[in-house]
What we know:
The structure holds three protein chains of three kinds. Chain A is of the alpha+beta class. Chain A has helices spanning 44-52, 94-104, 109-122, 138-150, 168-185, 196-202, 220-225, 230-235; strands spanning 4-15, 18-29, 33-37, 59-64, 67-68, 79-82, 156-160, 188-193, 205-210, 213-218, 240-248, 251-254, 257-260, 270-276, 281-284, 291-300, 305-311, 314-320, 329-334, 340-343. Chain A has eight helices and 20 strands. Chain A is elongated, with a radius of gyration of 24 Å. Chain A starts with a strand and ends in a 6-residue tail after the last strand. In chain B, helix 2 (18-54) crosses helix 13 and helix 7 packs antiparallel against helix 10 (215-231). The longest helix of chain B is centred in the last third of the chain and has 38 residues, at 261-298. The radius of gyration of chain B is 26 Å and the shape is globular. Chains B and C meet through helix 2, helix 4, helix 5, helix 6 and helix 7 of B and helix 1, helix 3, helix 4, helix 5 and helix 6 of C. The structure holds adenosine-5'-triphosphate and magnesium ion. Magnesium ion binds at residues 44-45, 84, 160 of chain A.
Amino acid sequence: MAKKLIELKDITKMYDGTAVVDHINLYINENEFITLLGPSGCGKTTTLRMIGGFEKPDSGEVVMNGAVVNDIPPYERPINTVFQRYALFPHLNVYDNIAFGLRNQKVPKAEIAERVENALKMVSLPNFALRKVANLSGGQMQRVAIARAIVNKPKILLLDEPLAALDLKLRQNMQYELKEMQRKLGITFVYVTHDQEEALTMSDTIVVMKDGVIQQIGTPTGIYNEPKNRFVARFIGESNILDGVYVRQNLVSFMGAEFDCVDTQFADGEPVDVVIRPEDLDIIDAVGAKLIGEVSSSIFRGVHFELCVMVQGKEFVIHTYENRKVGEHVGLRVDSYEIHLMKVEHVEH
Amino acid sequence: MGVRKKEPGRITRYLRRPEVEKVLQSIANVLKYAFFAFFMFLMYLPIIVIAIQSFNESTGLIYQFTGFTFDHWKNVLTFNLDSSLMKAISTTLLVALLATGISTVLGTIIAIGIHSLPQKKRQGMVFLNQVPILNADIITGISLMFVFKIVAEVIPGVFGIPSLLIAHVFFCIPYVVLSVLPKLAELDDNLYDAALDLYCKPAVGITKVIIPAIMPGILTGMLIAFTMSIDDFLISFFNAGQVNNLSIYIYGGYNRRLAPEVYAYNTILSTVIIVALIAMYVSSSLKKRKNLKREPRHA
Amino acid sequence: MNIKKLGKLALPYLVWMLVLVGIPLLMIFILSFMNTDGVSFAGATWTTAAWEKMFTLADTTNLQILGYTFLTAFVATVICFLIGYPMAYIVARSPFSNKFVILILTIIPMWSNSLLRNVALKNILSESNILDSLLSRIGLSFSIVFANQDQATFISIVIGLVLTFLPFMILPIYTVIEKIDESLLEASMDLGANRVRTFAKVTFPLSMKGVTTGIIMVFLPCFSGFAIQKLLSSGTVYVLGSLIEVNYIHDINFVSMLSIVILVLIFGSMMIVNKVDKEGATLV
Ligand SMILES: Nc1ncnc2c1ncn2[C@@H]1O[C@H](COP(=O)(O)OP(=O)(O)OP(=O)(O)O)[C@@H](O)[C@H]1O
Ligand SMILES: [Mg+2]
């Protein structure tokens, strides 16, 4: 059993009378790479800031190693942060930025020099010590920010969209490097992003948030394959979501036809949401198919084609390796284990 | 390319020929800089006259240059001045230095406070802060005089250096605040949090991170405060009690001859300020150049 | 910055401002409708005497002074604008890599005592002046001759005001023009506007913020001051400020009333500045 390092117990944070973070419960294990994922403004940063101690929850408890730390200020927590847009000290050079935390902890000079040097190597910026931070490129600033945090050997590293400002190529490189770094250093990473691909690639655990409420916690594959609701299904990759009815065990009906399925936790006759990923739909002959439609568009996406097929006035997105002409009549097929059923959410608004 | 217009006429076409355009352009440039230089010169004319007067030997006729002398300069530099001028100058400098120091510290703290307010309140405070700047000096002077008159009922000695100093601090603070606020706005929102994250206590976070990062703004504010304080007449006039500062001294002598040392003092002071600023500027740009030179090796 | 707690650092300033701005303003308003002995209200009664002293047709001396003050201030401000705008524009758009130097040149005069500069100016404007005295040594002469004393006084005052407050017109305008994005001008030219049109339709409207501030920063001191006017007229001319100067010890009620006249103008300007420049970016 992994050791619980941090627990958020029923945390709520209000701004101007609205709950920005709404009764969330979450625990973070030692050495885990956990990602808070959600659209802009959903409360990711706020959650992270409460873990870091920059913000106090209005109710609930932040527990660290079994002790409540709500009132412990950031400078007394074994946590360091890589801030959104880095927050490097503009009046200090790279070396002094990285040495900043060590100096405040009264680490001996010689040791500081050594640790800063190692940290710079770690982020592949050797020989950058005397550079002014204002003259660095985005990617370099970002590395300095990481070095400035990890040089303190924190138990937990909080990273708030650290790669958001980088171009695609660099971002992918840094994703890999960060993951490597986490493995090597054995630090717990709490990572914030609104990029689902990034979350899927890097995380051990993903926490999907929306409007301050946790929608689902799980492994990347778990969340991708078995989204709990429409929001998660839509947010994590593309999905075809359909209204259906759970007829009985292993049988579901939608689009006027009945399909075998493997989900079992519903009552007979219960309405369900049906999720089918675009890559799980196969194009077959129209003749004899349960789902028949007309190709309305086709876009080449590099490796695959993205087809849109209109079936009974409902548009299906399909990823396939062989192209079909627009206007062509095709049939669609899906394997029983690739039909995923979700409980229908009570519409709240 | 622009929108097509109707065909230009012959004169326009002639004027648009490259060689003609070049000549016209350079004529325009000459006129432009002549205009600039002329009014610059006019602004400097009184200062030139002040400088000339500081070397004028004439003791009687003020508008005659009778001979060259260093005596006035010598008198200023050896503090050999008649007592009323000496008092005026020392009051001016004392008040200016104290007011600059106090208002720089207070103004910086206030600016940090204002910056940390929520937007609505911040805008309100920024507006309030502008009041002394936009207010006519004479109103500020009278307003403060009213307050000091009331205070004087309780503390009779308030008129004089104390009231003068408070008045100067009052009108200097807004300039410091206005110089510091934009620097604060430029800072990364998380800078202070980053300091706390890296084990700074709150007060240390401010002195170690925020203050150095906004230093250029603080220095600008300081310079403006000093400039305003040293030159103030109107506000001081109503709040100096029996004390004179240099402006009041000069004003009081509007119809008679000023001690020639005034000219020497003024010339010396502005020279010192200008030299100091140029030195600061040169040393900072040298530093910059050195940094630039050093960097490629680490790249 | 997340230093919400630091917001309370601004609180004492609010109190300080209320005491040093709010209370006196209230006093000025009340005192202008009373006859008091200094700031003591003992035995005082309500009266509009102070107002009548100014706005009466029986004796228009004070109204004439008000008119003369306005005229000098207005003329000086217009001239400051006509000279200051092109100067600011020239500096801001100059190819000089180092505008700092030119800017410092604009500011240097401010480090000479402004009253002393006007004393020197008065010297220059006198018939026999120090420049003439110097130039005569090499056989030249320099002297400005006016048609009559009134004209001499008026022109001297206007020149004094202009030369004293010109930097306050140049600096805010410079600040805004400097900030105008070069690409906006290119965009305008690209869209078919020539230089003149670009200036009229893009640069000038965008520099209005600085112009407003500049005009206010020049007009208010020109309108409310008295020292420059007194120096340059050798004490022969009265302006609004002179009335305050003469009465500030003995007739506080009249002084309060005069302050209100000035305050009305200031209040208007503040409204304008607050509209066009919320963060006070052009004030320093
Ligand atoms: N200091 C604050 N005062 C008032 N409201 C705030 C404050 N900080 C955050 N909010 C609000 O709380 C909500 C959540 O903000 P938060 O920064 O946590 O979002 P986020 O998920 O990090 O978004 P993003 O991806 O854009 O960074 C937003 O609606 C934001 O406007
Ligand atoms: Mg965020």
